[in-house]
Amino acid sequence: MSKQAVIERRRAARIESERAERARASRTKRLWRLGAAAAAAAVLAAGAVAVSSNGGAKPAPPATTSSLLAGIPENHGVLGDPKAPLTLTEYVDLQCPICARAAQSTLPALIRDDVRSGKVKLQVRTLSFLGADSVRAARVAAGAERQGRLWAFLEAFYARQGTENSGYVTDGFLRDVSKAAGVDAGQAIGQADSAFASGRLERADADATRMNVQGTPTLTVKRGNGPERVLTTSPLDAAAVQAELDREAAR
Amino acid sequence: MRAAAIGVALAGLGIATYLTVVHYAGDEPVCAVAHGCATVQQSDYASLAGVPVALLGVLGYLGVLAALARDGEAWRTAAAFLSLAGLAFSGWLTYVEVGILDAICIWCVGSAICMALLTVLTVARMLRAEPGGAVSAS
Questions:
Q1: Which residues of A touch B100 (CB under 8 A)?
Q2: Residue A192 DSSP one-character state
Q3: Which residues of chain B does A25 touch, with a Cβ-Cβ cutoff of 8 Å?
Q4: Which of B31, B85, B100 is the closest to A172 by Cβ?
Q5: A-contacting residues of B 4-23, CB under 8 Å?
Q6: ipTM greater than cut 0.95
Q7: pTM above 0.80, yes or no
Q8: Is residue B59 domain-resident?
Q9: What is the pLDDT of residues A33-47, one digit of tens each?
Q10: Alpha helices, H only, chain A
Q11: What is the pLDDT of residues B59-103, one digit of tens each?
Q12: Which domain holds residue B80?
């Protein structure tokens, strides 16, 4: 091999080595850039998720319908043992956000401890004073009642409750609620304009007027066939409601 | 690869635009396959600090398209960054649908798939950049 050839070979090797080094450096640089981009994206997304979580801070849906209500009888919209000594009646409007809060913060403990044990039976009067969405919701709830799934329907509705009077109570929405509640949506929606549904709305209004209900949610209690009286404690205060029921039971 | 990314971004932009229009029109999205679109669209999670998530999607896809329209390492990095952020947020929204709302919005799933494809394409494009900052036509 001539001296010139050796020089050329060394030169080529050096060039190749420098090219490989540049490629390595470039790859490393790109990987660092990607890492930085991924980290920045993660920070941005985490911020968005944090805001989204807070903005969407509805109370978490209660333990599923099946676990909370499973095995508890429902007859004509009354949840629990028909012979339970105390009757707790809840006056609600399905669009009312505080009703949803009460249903998710106060009712689960009552259902678990008092309804399941046969001490209390629960009934509801679905009022519809907030607007057209309330009327539609209450009417389809009556359809769910006919299927013995009123309380499951209420629970599923509250878990998906939208902005008041935004027109969100559409047939699509009601189908989703019904599906989650194990209600035959077609049947329940089909019965929304029935005389039965109208009767349920009229009864709710009449009872609310009789009890001088001033807002929702309002809880009333009745012992046996005794007089119905409005609970004086906040429906959102589970412990206070429980204490008042205990006092009523002890009377 | 760049053309494919632009195609996917345009598809995502179409979905996000449709959902934004539906949001502001107060309508329900057409939901032929699944039936949870209205539930998702009307949930509290459909807005972020008062801004509809669908509108954020429009802005995100426009940002990716703008980054794809130019070349150079900085723009490739920008496209990958936007796609990664979009994918992460889409992942969160998908979790919200399945784990919290118990409702699937087929349009949102479509957008999440677009964002996932976009992430693969933009990251691969970024990693395939020519050494020394030179750019290929891919």
A1: 56, 60-61
A2: T
A3: 131
A4: B31
A5: none
A6: no
A7: no
A8: yes
A9: 888 888 888 888 888
A10: 3-55, 65-69, 97-105, 107-110, 132-146, 150-159, 171-181, 185-190, 195-210, 238-250
A11: 999 999 999 998 888 899 999 999 999 999 999 888 888 776 666
A12: 2-127
